[in-house]
Amino acid sequence: MNMNSEQLKFHEPSGKLDEGFKVRGEGYIEKFEEKYAEQEAESEQPVGGDIDFNKLLEELEGEQYLAKTGAAEIVEQIQKIKGKEGFSPEIFKDILVKILQRMQNECGDLGSLAVLEEAWKLCDFEKSARKYPEDHILHNGAYDFTNGKILISAREEEFTALMTIMALAVSGSDHKINVLHHENIHAKQYGPPTLRNIIKTRFERLFRKEKTILTETQSMVSANSRNSREIQSLRDLYEKLKQFTVPDEVINTRPFNKKGGGYNVIISDRAVDYLIVGHQEVRQLYALGLDDAVIADLVKNARWNKKNGVFNTLHNAIEELRDARGLESEDMENLVLKDILERKIVLYKAQRIAREEIDKVVDQLDE
Ligand SMILES: [Zn+2]
Fold this sequence. Notes:
Elements: H1 5-8, H2 16-25, H3 28-42, H4 53-66, H5 71-83, H6 90-107, H7 116-120, H8 125-131, E1 141-144, E2 149-152, H9 161-171, H10 175-190, H11 195-207, H12 209-225, H13 234-243, H14 269-287, H15 292-300, E3 304-305, E4 310-311, H16 312-324, H17 329-366
Antiparallel strand pairs: 1-2, 3-4
Helix pairs in contact: 2-14, 4-17, 5-17, 6-9, 6-17, 9-17, 10-12, 10-15, 11-12, 12-14, 12-15, 14-16, 14-17
The protein binds zinc ion.
C-alpha cells in the first residue's frame, strides 16, 4: 500500500465534532442522555422488559446518601488505627478481605478488583518506572502487544491494602487497579504476543483505525461499567480518546508513542461513527451480561461492516442474544440504562462498605 504522508496527518475536527456526532448517531448521545434524565426525573414505571426503574432509582438515591465523601475523615480514622498500641499493617489486609467479601455478597461483583491478580502477572514494573519516570497522581497505563506486558505509572509499592481501602472509601474504586483492568482487557483483545498476533495488531493499528477505536472503547467503557467513574458518557469517551491522538505527526508504527500513548487514532468524522456504534454495541454486550473475555474475543475478530455500519461480530452476538431472550431493540436501551444505574449503585455501595469496615475497627479500638 502506498501511503501518502499528507493523508496521514492528524486533522483536528474542530467544530465538526458535534456535526459528526449527529450525522451517524442521529443525536444518539442526546437521545441517550435525555432518556436517562427522563428516567431519573420522573421515576417512571418499568418500561420494556421487567425492569423496575423506580426501585433502582430509589436504591441509587439511598446509596448515594449513605456514601459520604471526604478523605480527611477517612485519614483521621486510619490514623486512629495506626496509633493504637501493637499496631501492625497486617490489620489492613484483614480489613480489605472483609470489604471484598462484603462487596462480593452485597454487590455481586468485585469489578476491576477481581482482575487484579490476573493483571498483576502481566505487569512489568521495572520498565514501567522507565516509561513513567515521574509518578502521576492520576495513573496512566499501557499495554505492549509486542511482549504482552502491562506498563503502569503507579509504583509497585503503591499497591497496598491500605491504599486500596482508602481509595474504595473515598470513591468506591481504586483508580490504579482500574488502569490495570483496562490494560488487561487489551491483553485479551490482542491475544498472546505470538508473531501472528503482533503482525495482525500492527496491521490493524496502521490500516484499520476502527479496530483501535473499538479496542479502546471496550477498555474504557468496561472500566466505567465495573467500578470506576472513568467514562461516564460517550462524550467523555470521545474526549478521552482525543487526548491520545497523535498530533501533527505521521502515525508511528512503534508500539508506543512517547508523546501521545499508543493509540494511533486519527479522529475524523468517520472515526466518530466507529466510536458511536462501537460504544453502543459494547454497552449492549455488557448489559446482556457478557464478560470482558468474551467481548474481547468478539472485538478481536471484529470487522467494520461498511454497508450496514456495524461491527460484524458484535452486532451478530447482540442479535443472537436479543432474539434468544425475546427482547426488542427498545428493551436493549432499557437494559443498558439498567446496567449503568446498577453500576453506579455498586460504586456507592463499595464506598459505604469500605467506610463501615474502617469504622468497625476504630470502634473496636475504643472499647
Ligand atoms: Zn487502552
